[in-house]
Amino acid sequence: MKDVLNELLAEKSFLAADDPRIERMKRETAPILYDFKNYSGKANLTNQTLTLRGTIPLENLHVPDQSYCPAGLTKGLSINAWLNADLKGLLQSDIHFKNYFLEKDILLKYYHGYVAVESGELISQYEPVITYEYNDEFEKVEHIEQKEVKVPEITVSLKGNAPALLRYLQKQNVISTDELLSRELFPLYAVYSNNNMDLLQLSTSEERVLPELSPVRGPYFLFADIDFNQIRKQKQFAFLDSYIAPLSRLKLKGTKQDAKTGKIELELLCNHF
Length: 273
Description:
The chain is of the alpha+beta class and 273 residues long. Helices cover 15% and strands 44% of the residues. The chain has helices spanning 2-9, 20-26, 104-110, 162-171, 228-233, 241-244; strands spanning 32-36, 39-46, 49-57, 67-69, 79-84, 95-97, 100-102, 111-134, 140-160, 192-195, 199-203, 216-218, 222-227, 247-256, 261-270.
């Protein structure tokens, strides 16, 4: 921000007087306008609500002409989101993390351009807790108890060649033969995998069943509905509470205009500023 202000004071980074973007922005009535690189749009702030309408580049996302969404939208979710994109432009290299290695070409081969994320109410998981006691012979004896912990029910669904993707992730020790995500990769909660021929599902709920219906056609390649008030009220992500306290709800929709351009509509409701 300081660098931007210094450039403005030095009269740098200004548009030329004959730049066509100036005339285009003059015709707009919105109080906030932006136009840089391949991003443009307008925003408004009224009654603690920020609305934004604009365009974004799609070259690196490779959004398909036909988008998909979950067949049945679950009610009462705090997070409901999906994205249609093959991500070839974003995933430029192999993934290295600790002792884990994933080849980007294999991931992109088995992933078929659709991911959905849901987060609902708190559920119970049970973590082993080791305690020690002394028996009648004064010998130290180990006891393992199952401690109940409350975690958010988070589910991620990936469309693609699910059996092949699962086999590869198991080969790389990302998912165990018991179909559990490595706790070294994600230590917060236990995450269970499930799949059919077309969908790989990762969920904090061991009882979460795969949807009976495959994703259906929808108008938005990108969609997100996040209820921050519900997230805080249910303590789903307590470590984020202080950061999201000013926020109430986010709604985001993205539609494909052409191969290079997408249209974004955003509404952010705030509790206070």
